[in-house]
Amino acid sequence: MRCIITILGLSNSANARYICNDTEILNLLPNLKENNSINTFALLNLCKGYDIIPLYTKDSKIANLKALSKANINCDNAFDKARQIDDVGDFAEIFNIINEIIKDYNEVIVDVSHGFRHLPMLVLTQLIITNLQNSRKICAILFAKELEQGKSYEIINLKEYLDLANISYLLSTFDDNYTVANHIQIGTKYKELFSALKGFSDNIMALNIKELFSSFASRLIAELDSNLLANPAIYDYANELKEKISNLQKIYNAKPAYEFYYHLADDLISKNYILLGLILLYEGVQEYIYTTIKLKNPNLISQIEHYYKEKCQRDDSYLIKSFCMNLSKPKGYDRLKKREKSINLSHSEYESLCESYHNIIQIDKINQLYKRLDKLRNNLAHANSGDSIANAKSNIKNHQNSYKQLILKV
After folding, report:
1. pLDDT at residue 116, rounded to an integer
2. What's the CA gap between 382 and 103, in Å, rounded?
3. Residue 117 — left, alpha, or beta (φ > 0 → left; ψ -120 to 50 → alpha)?
4. Labelling 40: which of 165, 250, 338, 347 has CA 20 to 30 A away?
5. Is the pLDDT of residue 251 over 90?
6. Helix 91-103 vs helix 119-133: crossing angle, to nearest 10
């Protein structure tokens, strides 16, 4: 079912020329290409395949019946689906009427060219709400743009502004929580921006850090940048988000991984992604120990990395970090040789690595932090942890402070 909602005004003056060059509108309403008409209500009555639903007051109905008569348009059925506004000051009732009409139809076109007082604004407000819930329902918003006063008008489509409202909503919610509202559909003009937001969201929620900041972050920054100047309506939202992602990208590119992990964890924890933040801090401690040992033993660590790469046929940072964390265990070399028989590492070389591990400043406290992070991470990762979220937030704040002191040295 399809309908055209049109707001009636009081105009019933002489004919004016109405033109339309908008392809999207003409695909829906071919009769609007060019016509002479007293107003858009008379013009829309020439369109077939839609229920015409006027919103009117008593005075506007009288004026438009006269307009239809002047245009020699049969007005017998013009008000069959019409809805009367008895009290133009009753905003709640007006919203209710508009909402009832929209709910009854699968496709809706709205004409806000005319109308009395605040009704067009109320209709547009309702359309924004509807469009957030079901973007496919609103097909077009018609407005007669005056070219020459009283003589010629261009019918334009305001639906793009619904897309801007949706984009503003997407950007603001994304800035708050890095998620994309998948139910919201947007025009083709913003499809690439939507895709970039979705790609960034999917990867950050999966903590796919390498892919996120080698590909998806730069793509999102580029899409945000290309939409800044072209769309003043979304400039603030897009620019603020661009600066935030750009800052994370800079930290990722310029700082050690364990420092970047802290900044990203802090960001995610502030958005209440407690478990994701904990995972990053937990991984960050491993990264710090691995990085510190590698700085003192670059050739040995590179040799072990190469061994694991050859064994697994891929870069597997987990294995080398696990190797470094196991340097604290007694008889670690015997266990290593038993598990990795073909590793080319002498006992003295292994002991050199162990010495580097134990010489890390405050390594005992760092290990305690690591164990606390691991315990809290396991608690939150299981449905039966029994811990309250308030306690988890308090604990993780303490762990963040310890991380800053022990790992970042601030």
Report:
1. 64
2. 42
3. left
4. 165
5. yes
6. 50
